[in-house]
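FORM 7B: Structural annotation worksheet

SECTION A. Query
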Amino acid sequence: MATLVTGGAGFVGLNLVEALLARGEEVVLFDSGALPAAAEWGFARHAARLAFVKGDVRDSAAVERAFSAKRIERVAHCAAVTSGAAREAREPSAIVAVNVQGTINVLEAARRRGAGRVVVTSSGAVYGESAYRLAQLHEDATPAVPVTLYAITKFAAERVCARLRELWPMDVVCARLGTVVGPWERDTGARDNFGTHSQLARFALKGETAVLPPREVRRDWIYARDAADGLAALLEARAPGHGLYNLGAGKDWSGCITAWCEALRSAFPEFRFRAAKEGEEPNIGYTDCDRGLMDVGRLAHDVGFRPRFGPAEAYADYLEWLKRTPDFWEKNA
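SECTION B. Predicted structure
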């Protein structure tokens, strides 16, 4: 019995595949793109337990083939287009097709094949305007006011899951991820907004100077390994009491960007960083507004999952990974 991970060659999906294989599980990885070389090498020892099916979630026949690779017991649906404004203006239909219709295709195939638990990755972005007005964000009590097309489609996918869970019925759970930090983030063509931590890591590996925005903003950061472990916990939970969970760090990471820069400088001495001067354009980008933090009490109560990594632990682990894969971004730019 295997777990199917859609978008398994992407940022979150690849971390989840890695975590599941480390647990000794069988995995079917479904993605339209290729694995990075470092992942191919790392997964080689798990070849007997890993099947890679190439395909697009917009293609229902391709999704059906993924369910034929092994007997699928559970599904983690991680495939998504994390779009920026330019792509939203250029190709809105494609974003909706992947993020909404792709979700429906996966749910329909899971139902036909008799799969059990389906965990669908959503995003804290669905809180939209509420995230900029409130300090704490709760699954039911906080209004979802999505603004971007990415957030709108993720919220639509959540509502589709909730409705089909009632109509069919079906065991499907959605997880609203915080802003994920850590290994395997790269340009796959599906992510328009490259994470701040990864931007800084690229500068450090090249020995260049990063120019930061004058003020660091508060975001709901979560380390990639915690995100993967949280998704795995939802896949494994016997009977979650709710259909929607926040999956964030549960901690305030304020000041973490400076701490990450310091950690990078200690590991890569040629790296430099400073705040942008008045009128100067930063070469590192992130949003300029503070965002509220997602409350993770429901996940802890229902599933017993609590994130392990604070900033210090996350950065130590991330640095070790960077040292093991120093040419990762050169080959995946």
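SECTION C. Observations
The radius of gyration is 19 Å. The chain has a mean pLDDT of 94.

SECTION D. Sign-off
Analyst initials: ____
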